[in-house]
Amino acid sequence: MEQIAIPDNVTKKEERYKLLSKQIKSLLSKDDNTLTSLANFTAALNDGLSYVSWVGFYLYDGDKLYLGPFQGKVACTEIKLGSGVCGTAASKSETLIVPDVNKFPGHIACDPDSKSEIVIPLVKTDGTLFGVLDLDSTEFNSFDETDGKYLKEICNFLIKEIL
Ligand code: SME
């Protein structure tokens, strides 16, 4: 059975991401349905990153972002481009690291316990927007440049090799 297993004695964030990235790459297959891959992708990140309280996709339908596969509490179903952290990351095609969501103008509080967040835009190789990957934490300052670097790398693999 496929599983994500990162030993507890690997404590450095960077080292944990390296193992997680390797395991996600072997878990996902181009032969699987897109929804299947996105669903397992969120489960793998949820398994591998202990400080994450919510992880999931918002997908772009040509007009707005809508809730895709995720792990965590129920969430907002639709987000307009330019709204909240997700809509801003999508419209700017920019990864956003938000150390304190209370300080982000227009932050959409799906979960009132969410304190920090990172959103990675997913742009296909033809330049079109696929959606965003959103990770939340109930602690402030959970996400940093290391998360940004590795999540971008894993998302890049997803876009180029799987979708
Ligand atoms: N906080 C996000 C909304 C999505 S939830 O966190 C799952 C935002 O401001 O875009």
Our count of domains comes out at: 1
Q: What is the assigned CATH homologous superfamily? A: GAF domain
What is the structural class? alpha+beta
Shape: globular
CATH hierarchy: architecture? 2-Layer Sandwich
Largest sheet: 6 strands, antiparallel
**CATH level 1 name:** Alpha Beta
Strand order within the widest beta sheet: 3-2-1-6-5-4
The total count of strands amounts to 6
Radius of gyration: 15 Å
Bound molecules: methionine sulfoxide
Mean pLDDT: 95
Number of helices: 4
Poorly predicted segments? none
SSE pattern = HHEEEHEEEH
Descriptive labels:
single chain, 163 residues, alpha+beta, Beta-Lactamase, 6-stranded antiparallel sheet, 4 helices, 6 strands, 35% helix, globular, binds methionine sulfoxide
Describe this structure as you would to a colleague.
The chain is α+β, with helices and mostly antiparallel strands and 163 residues long. It has a single domain (28-162), classed as 2-Layer Sandwich (Beta-Lactamase), CATH 3.30.450. It has helices at residues 13-27, 34-48, 84-92, 145-162, and strands spanning 54-60, 64-71, 78-80, 96-98, 116-123, 129-137. Helix 1 (13-27) runs parallel beside helix 4. The radius of gyration is 15 Å and the shape is globular. The two termini are 23 Å apart. The mean pLDDT is 95. Bound molecules: methionine sulfoxide. Methionine sulfoxide is lined by residues 54, 75-76, 79, 84-86, 107-108, 110, 114, 117, 134, 136.
Write the layout of secondary structure elements.
Layout (H helix, E strand, L loop, with lengths): L12 H15 L6 H15 L5 E7 L3 E8 L6 E3 L3 H9 L3 E3 L17 E8 L5 E9 L7 H18 L1
Antiparallel strand pairs: 1-2, 1-6, 2-3, 4-5, 5-6
Methionine sulfoxide binds next to helix 3 and strand 6.
